[in-house]
């Protein structure tokens, strides 16, 4: 395992995280070579640190595995680099299940061993100043990618003292996601005053007693802005808008020359910006289903064109993936089998009419024809289910990423859908060189961008109404301002209301009161966006560059690239092709 302790020290800019066991990362093309070099570095570091020399034949104690009295930092251990087979790290732990969004959701397929979590916490409890004989671990919450436990002093009531979070990370992007998040949070703590939770120890290698990557960090005493908003007055909300502007301004000073995610160097504590570098991008576009196995450029990217092409490439690779086509074909065959054989009284009431119409189409057919179709479908479904390899257990096969719709001629439907999606992707690939800069990014042309400064991730002290933390630093990236939306999502929406809504009568229906609250939030957001921008102008912040209008709009082009494999984009892509053909000629 690769457990790492995070001592902190003070500096004029606030708390500075001083780590060891940091890592240089390069593009995925060199990932295997990179992992080998990381592991060779570890071997040298182990010997130099003196905690695992070849002369020591004794099995270390549990606590000795996690603390290093020689150098005062994380114990260097084998396998600190990215694993060779990223999907292997997911098997038996998560399954990607397509949901209502474009991107599938990672679902945990096994229960966590809480006893193992407590043992790991006990080995680290001294780092947060608690007694290993007086602590409690309790379930707290979970999100899309993490499960959180509260760590507190057992002899005190919950919420009465300082508490900590033990966060278990699902292996959506093994090693990279946790390593990049740790590095990003450290960089932000070192060079800004943005309130970021302090991380004490983490493990980016799932080969540990918990079986998953994890980190232990401060539990911030605050509630999401979404919950605090109604109780805050307009002065407090305006102050928050100014805080958000200050944070965006400070992030604008963290400059890089490539597009990707931030990682730390390995063999020395981070003491300057030079100890951080841009490596492979941590982005949902590259994670779900079979996407981690595709041989694609995962960053860092040296131009905007290179980045956009990579996003389109991974979507196109998914469309061309034979297993995606087989799953879509299987799902529509299974649905047709269910519709042919089900009793209408047992069907979902929302589907009953559609299924009845489908069954009526077969009512006039000879019984043997219907039975032959049922046998054919049953054989197809059984063959698929029996031939799914064990290695595919990270994929949920019961719902397709690319839905073929209701039963019908599924073979033609499959072929036509995937052909159309491939055509969309190719059209975008052809257009990108004509629509976005191909030149190499300059040395300081990208900034650290927290794309999810949402009402859930801004924590508020309910007593004072002030912001106390910005959380969720997963998938934070370095981007040029031409790809960054200017407003934080916490105060952003599609509306620009200049007049406050009229309040309903006290005895009005509940729906009127709800509508008023929604419209009031829209009106307030309009005011908060003005306050946000005014504060940026006072600071003469580089973040103002994100407001500049460009033609073409590269943010729009990035959105198209992210949804290039979705049929709902066909009209927008077609319009863009036609516009470009008018400007530079057909076939460009």
Automatic annotation (TrEMBL):
Region (Disordered): 1-83
Stretches with biased composition (Basic and acidic residues): 54-65
Keywords, in A-Z order: Coiled coil
Residues annotated as transmembrane: none
Coiled coil regions in record: 367-394
Entries under InterPro entries matching the protein: AGP_Transferase, Kinase-like_dom_sf
SUPFAM superfamilies in the record: Protein kinase-like (PK-like)
Full protein name: Altered inheritance of mitochondria protein 9
Species of the source: Lasiodiplodia theobromae
């Amino acid at each position: 395992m690769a457990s790492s302790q995070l001592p902190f020290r003070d500096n004029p800019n606030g708390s500075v995280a001083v780590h060891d066991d940091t890592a240089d990362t390069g593009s995925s093309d060199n990932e295997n070579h990179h992992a080998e070099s990381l592991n060779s570095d570890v071997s040298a570091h182990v010997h130099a640190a003196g905690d695992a020399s070849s002369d020591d034949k004794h099995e270390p104690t549990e606590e000795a595995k996690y603390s290093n009295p020689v150098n005062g930092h994380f114990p260097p251990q084998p396998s600190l680099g990215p694993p060779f087979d990223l999907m292997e790290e997911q098997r038996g732990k998560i399954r990607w299940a397509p949901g209502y969004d474009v991107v599938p959701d990672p679902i945990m397929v096994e229960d966590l061993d809480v006893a193992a979590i407590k043992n790991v916490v006990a080995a680290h409890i001294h780092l947060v100043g608690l007694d290993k004989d007086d602590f409690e671990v309790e379930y707290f919450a979970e999100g899309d990618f993490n499960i959180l436990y509260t760590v507190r002093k057992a002899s005190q009531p919950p919420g009465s003292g300082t508490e900590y979070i033990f966060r278990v990370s699902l292996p959506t992007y093994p090693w990279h996601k946790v390593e990049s998040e740790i590095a990003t949070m450290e960089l932000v703590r070192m060079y800004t005053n943005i309130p970021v939770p302090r991380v004490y120890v983490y493990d980016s290698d799932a080969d540990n007693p918990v079986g998953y990557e994890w980190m232990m960090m401060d539990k911030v005493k605050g509630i999401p802005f979404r919950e605090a908003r109604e109780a805050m007055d307009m002065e407090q909300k305006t102050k928050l808008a100014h805080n958000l502007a200050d944070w965006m301004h400070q992030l604008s000073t963290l400059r890089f020359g490539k597009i990707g995610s931030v990682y730390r160097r390995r063999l020395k504590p981070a003491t300057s910006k030079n100890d951080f570098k841009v490596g492979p991008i941590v982005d949902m576009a590259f994670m779900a289903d079979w996407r981690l196995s595709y041989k694609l450029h995962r960053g860092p990217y040296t131009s905007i064109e290179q980045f956009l092409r990579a996003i389109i490439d991974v979507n196109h690779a998914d469309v061309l993936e034979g297993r995606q086509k087989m799953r879509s074909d299987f799902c529509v065959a299974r649905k047709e089998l269910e519709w042919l054989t089900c009793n209408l009284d047992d069907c979902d009431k929302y589907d009953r009419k559609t299924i009845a119409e489908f069954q009526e189409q077969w009512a006039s057919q000879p019984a043997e024809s219907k039975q032959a179709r049922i046998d054919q479908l049953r054989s197809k479904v059984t063959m698929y289910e029996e031939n799914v390899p064990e290695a595919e257990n990270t994929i949920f096969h019961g719902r397709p990423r690319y839905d073929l719709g209701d039963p019908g001629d599924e073979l033609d439907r499959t072929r036509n859908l995937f052909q159309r999606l491939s055509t969309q992707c190719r059209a975008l690939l052809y257009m990108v060189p004509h629509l976005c800069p191909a030149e190499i990014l300059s040395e300081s042309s990208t900034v650290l961008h927290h794309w999810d400064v949402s009402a859930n991730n801004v924590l508020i002290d309910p007593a004072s109404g002030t912001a106390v933390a910005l959380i969720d630093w997963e998938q934070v990236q370095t981007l040029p301002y031409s790809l960054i939306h200017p407003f934080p999502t916490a105060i952003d929406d599609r509306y620009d209301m200049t007049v406050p809504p009229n309040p309903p009568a006290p005895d009005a229906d509940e729906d009127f009161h709800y509508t008023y609250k929604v419209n009031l939030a829209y009106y307030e957001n309009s005011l908060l966006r003005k306050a946000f921008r005014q504060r940026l102008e006072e600071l003469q912040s580089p973040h103002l560059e994100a407001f500049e209008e460009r033609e073409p709009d590269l943010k729009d082009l990035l959105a198209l690239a992210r949804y290039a494999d979705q049929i709902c984009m066909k009209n927008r892509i077609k319009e863009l092709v036609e516009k470009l053909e008018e400007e530079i000629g057909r076939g460009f």
